[in-house]
Specification:
This protein is of the alpha/beta class. The protein has one domain: Rossmann fold. Helices cover about 30% and strands about 10% of the residues. Strands 3-2-1-4-5-6 form a six-stranded parallel beta sheet, sandwiched between helices. Helix 2 (about 55-65) runs parallel beside helix 4 (about 85-105) and helix 4 runs parallel beside helix 5 (about 140-160). The structure holds nicotinamide-adenine-dinucleotide.
Length: about 260
């Protein structure tokens, strides 16, 4: 019954982990902590520390925890920086996804939900973005997410893998006051940083036409989602390392570099 959340120590992944817990579904996290925090993971949830690029570790984790499905949230999400770091972006988001899928195939795990992005659409020339809107990513980040979707699709054809890709836009808010978006580049952290500093948030966007499709979901339906948004930065960053349980495999895994 157990599900694996890659990137479960990150902003979105930590919410996914909480949703599994609320539903009473056992969950295990695989995270290299390159941009996440072990303190984001609730007590009682095992964190395997290591990279999705380590196929042996991924396979061992799937088998040891009898995983039946994966929510693949781990990724390098900085679209702007990806232009300067294309190889790193492709390695984390494309190679990482391919390694994960191969490990799943070896372990007989046939369900995956993929954290894709609205960045696969680029800047569509339309008022409403729907699922069938042509994909035209404008950065290595968007391209890497689109390739990730293709990997799932093609693996589905080849092996019967059941998959879905979520293309959300700027995710915002916190379903738990201790979990927040720590990104130095995302829109809403920048807006709230400016507000808390007494400055007027500035945007360099040239259009306000783009709207997102219903599929561009947030990570939580908690009624406290919006109310807690403004408290994101007030919450103290969780301490690391924590005393949370880790597997022996995790202890030997080599984390990839923080970006
Ligand atoms: N936040 C958004 O607005 C947004 C929008 C669209 C898509 N996404 C996608 O959702 C996912 C999560 O976003 P987030 O905002 O939670 O980012 P985040 O940086 O907070 O979380 C990513 C997590 O993945 C982990 N990670 C990164 N590379 C890894 C690797 N190779 N192996 C194991 N763990 C690794 C990080 O340590 C971190 O805990 C990303 O894939 C991102 O591209 C985010």
């Amino acid at each position: 019954m157990t599900w694996l959340v890659t990137g479960g120590a990150g902003y979105i992944g930590a919410h996914v982990v909480r949703s599994f817990q609320e539903a009473g579904v056992p969950v295990v996290v695989l995270d290299d902590l390159s941009s996440g925090f072990d303190g984001f993971v609730p007590e009682g949830v095992v964190i395997v520390r290591g990279s999705i690029l380590d196929g042996e570790l991924v396979e061992r984790t799937l088998r040891e925890h009898a995983v039946v499905g994966v929510v693949h949230v781990a990724g390098y999400k900085y679209a702007g920086v990806s232009v300067q770091r294309p190889l790193h972006t492709y390695e984390q988001n494309v190679t990482g996804t391919a390694v994960l899928l191969a490990a799943m195939e070896r372990a007989g795990v046939d369900k995956i939900v993929f954290s894709s992005s609205a960045a696969v659409f680029g800047t569509p020339d339309t008022d409403l973005v729907v699922e069938g809107t042509p994909k035209s990513p404008e950065s290595p980040y968007g391209e890497s997410k689109l390739i990730g979707e293709w990997l799932l699709r093609d693996q589905g054809v080849a092996t019967g893998l059941q998959h879905t890709s979520l293309r959300y836009f700027n995710v915002v808010g916190s379903g738990d006051p201790g979990v927040y978006d720590a990104s130095p580049h995302n829109l809403f952290p920048l807006v709230f940083d400016a507000l808390l500093a007494g400055r007027t948030p500035a945007s360099t966007a040239t259009t306000t036409r783009r709207r997102t499709a219903p599929a561009c979901a947030t990570t939580s339906t908690s009624p406290t989602w919006r109310a807690r948004t403004s408290r994101r930065r007030v919450a103290s960053r969780p301490a690391s390392p924590s005393s949370r349980p880790t597997t022996s495999a995790a202890a030997t895994a080599s984390p990839c570099a923080r970006s």
